[in-house]
Write a structure and sequence with these properties.
Elements (H helix, E strand, L loop, with lengths): L2 H14 L2 E4 L4 E3 L7 E7 L2 E7 L2 E8 L4 E2 L2 H5 L6 E4 L4 E7 H9 L3 H19 L1
Amino acid sequence: MSEESERRHSLSRINEAKRLQLKDGQHIFREHESGDAAYVVLEGQVAIYKIGEKGEQILATLGKGAMFGEMALIDNQVRMASAKAITNDTLILVVTRDNFIKRMSALDPFTRGLIKILAENIRTVQKD
């Protein structure tokens, strides 16, 4: 398949993917939930946060093009943090577990292994 053909095929798959329109403060997922999807911000902003002794601690503010929630799909563990829209009319693309697994299985074994090691390292650092 040519590069242009592959690009068009990828765009058609993206156009078929589910999208969610969210309002300010609407939760996407919460820490410790199991994860069945990853997400890509198409419009607006999303906050990744944890609830601690001092209340809500924002870990990151994500904008257009940012992917989040992928860790739960890589290693089948619970969510490490919560995510919510922080602007009105936030639009996100939903990447299902099945679609994610298809993409991962298309990678060579070295790359798949490297991604899993990196995910494990991130979880280890978060526990400390």
